[in-house]
Amino acid sequence: MSSNADFFKKRRAGILLHPTSLPGTPGNGDLGEQAYRFVDFLADCGISIWQMLPLGPPHEDLSPYQCQSVHAANPLLISLDRLVEKGWLSKDSVPTAEHELEHELKRLAKQGWLTEDVLARELKQRLEQSQFRDDGFCPQPEHDAAMRYRHARLKEARAGFEKNASATDSAAFDEFTKIHAEWLDDYGLFRALSAEHHQALKADCLKALNEIHHHDALKGSLLELTKAAGWWGWRPELRDRQPQALEAARLRLAKEIKQHRFEQFVFFSQWEALKAYANQHGVLMFGDIPIFVAEDSVDVWASRENFLLDGNGRPTVVAGVPPDYFSETGQRWGNPHYNWNKMQADGFRWWIARLKSAKLLFDVVRIDHFRGFEACWAISIHCDTAIEGEWVKVPGHQFFETLQQSGIDLPLVAEDLGVITHEVNHLRERFGLPGMKILQFAFDSGNDNPYLPHNHIEDCLVYTGTHDNDTTLGWYHELPEHIRQFARDYLRSPLDDMPWPLVEAAFASKAQWAIVPMQDVLALDGHHRMNVPGVPTGNWRWRFDWSQKPHGVHDKLRDFCQHYNRT
Q1: pTM (2 decimals)?
Q2: How big is the CA angle at 207 (ends 201 and 210), to the nearest 5 degrees?
Q3: Which positions are annotated as active-site residues?
Q4: How many CA atoms lie within 13 Å of 457's alpha carbon, on the beta-carbon side?
Q5: pLDDT tens per residue, range 469-513
Q6: Of 260-269, 323-332, 402-411, the least confident
Q7: Of 54, 271, 361, 455, which sits with the fewest C-beta atoms within 10 Å of its C-beta?
Q8: Alpha carbon distance 318, 335 (integer Å)
């Protein structure tokens, strides 16, 4: 981090695309052929940055900002084709959309949710609709089917690994588990215990459904079961990590734990190969670290002393942001707050380990909600919104001083959006972290707006929009007419040209790095946005297809890079 400022001196261009959004395999993109094709696309366009969202294993809502571990990666990104090449998986086991859907619908029929005649009709209809959709989203049933299929194939791959792995691969697996034992052992146990607990919870839910006849009673009973879904609902001896209980669980769940270790080994191996390929082609891998962690994560369960929790492991206050212009009630994220006093006392050891893991994956990392290193909004656990909260100071200067002294040479970017004070800017500037400028925020308040390109500084990254914004085309179509007119006049562009005038404005900016979401490169409308903040379902599923690539897009991006001296 000591050379943070020097790292950003070269003018670069990048594309924001999460690997799950890659085309090809059913369910989500992965680290296979299409990931390498995307690197080739970047290099052909003269672009040197692939930015993505956090890579951790998400929960069922698929949010990469609420993961089950800050060290582990999402095993559903593993390329099954690469496992076939290794000889650990039969080629016949690699999924097709038809096989996955048939398997899913037959499962529903077996459970009594579909009759045989409905099964045939549904299968035909789903197959017709499951081809690449215009909006790029994989429907929920199809996505769930693909996920189950992938998990099953990964189990087959582990069996194939144990049977067919070379001596080199076996030694590499053993070495991986030793090097990462500090987090990998707890992670495997946590995932195995979570699955065991969820199976028991499902049985309780079915029992409740069979026994309860009144809607209100049903609602209340299932709500109580839902509250116990996380690790805090485990048996007390497991929740509180009593040594004898943990040892018994390790013996009981040894097979499941080894599966999770294997999946992490495979992911890191495939990622290392992809990153090497990208770097060889002049492309940097740009990652993302959420400042907070999910309550239902191995990180909170295994190190409760690092968080502000009560005796049962529940947060005493939760994270979010206060009411503002965009929301009268603010945003209540629900993440537990850190016990910064404890973290500072032990030299921020937990954070140092987290950033070391990030260094293995990325060339540069964005820190989400950077302002939280100066002060965090702490919300009462009894408040359903973010209204009842207060700003709590954080030892950010001491943290970044310690990070500088740690020897972790990982360039960092500050996501400095939201409530930004002089103190936040001072912290960012003192440690040489560039901030962010979002062009979609630039046109609603006149020529002094800091997001307008003529007000940019070199020490920042400029974006047309981020994963939380609408696509540029969707944003432009939804603007009030007076703002749209100002944007049109400022950019000197007709309506039909969007999103390219905004993309060119990003490339032309003084900002050292210019990043454009893939949706804008493909000139897609608002149906293709990745996430709608505050909407709990339907996010994180967008995928693109190469058939959407506009004619001449390579030449246009390459010309922008050359004209504005970006690589």
Answers
A1: 0.91
A2: 145
A3: 368, 415, 468
A4: 8
A5: 999 999 999 999 999 999 999 999 877 799 999 999 999 999 999
A6: 323-332
A7: 455
A8: 5
